[in-house]
Design a protein that fits this description.
By secondary structure, the protein is mainly alpha-helical. It contains 10 helices and 2 strands. α3 (about 40-50) packs across α6, α7 packs across α9 (about 155-165) and α7 (about 115-135) crosses α10.
């Protein structure tokens, strides 16, 4: 298990370590070359998409980049930078994990405060999503709602981690409370399914 964790950790350091193996330098050079071919809008959205864990929807991407999201995201899909997959009646998008690590590194060093703004927008989007679901009482459609949230589980955890890492005065207690209720209900629903 520790070997897997070590290798995953190594993958995330590929882009910042100047003493990497030639194959890592080659991968970095390829990603740099592809990144430079993107327009300024495509580069900005690409960097910000690194905050998503486990994929995202078009609505979620629009929370990070409201201007021309459909056009810019479509261009990233056409250029095979972002992967699109059918998910229920709609589409879900994702970055390959190595590409996501590269985007995260770019996000952290390109524009001061861009990472915090992207992570704040990500957390705010998922706060709205969870609070909208939290307004409903348990009922027959409750399982459908939790099934929809299951696709966002990694994003909800990432948002919770971001919000939890802030100084206590910066943390929105509504978000923490709504997420806590979601995870409690999720555990309840999973327990009742297994029974």
């Amino acid at each position: 298990m520790s070997e897997i964790a070590d290798r995953l950790g190594d993958r995330l350091h590929v882009f910042s370590d100047s003493a990497t193996m030639p194959s890592h330098r080659s991968l970095n050079a390829t990603l740099d070359w592809n990144y430079e071919l993107l327009s300024a809008s495509e580069q900005a959205l690409f960097r910000r998409l690194a905050v998503f864990a486990g994929g995202f929807t078009l609505d979620a991407a629009q929370a990070l980049w409201p201007e021309e999201t459909l056009t810019v995201l479509g261009a990233l899909v056409d250029k095979s930078v972002v992967m699109a997959e059918q998910y229920g009646a709609g589409s879900r998008y994702r970055l390959l994990e190595t590409v996501r690590a590269y985007a995260a590194e770019r996000l952290a060093r390109t524009v001061p405060e861009e990472e915090a703004q992207a992570r704040d927008a990500h957390a705010a989007y998922f706060l709205r999503l969870v609070r909208a679901g939290d307004r409903h009482e348990d009922g027959p459609e409750d399982q459908d709602r939790f099934d929809r949230f299951a696709g966002e589980h990694d994003n909800l955890r990432a948002a919770m981690s971001w919000v939890s890492a802030r100084p206590s005065g910066d943390t929105d207690p509504r978000f923490v409370l709504a997420l806590r209720r979601y995870f409690d209900r999720r555990d309840h629903h999973q327990g009742s399914r297994g029974a």
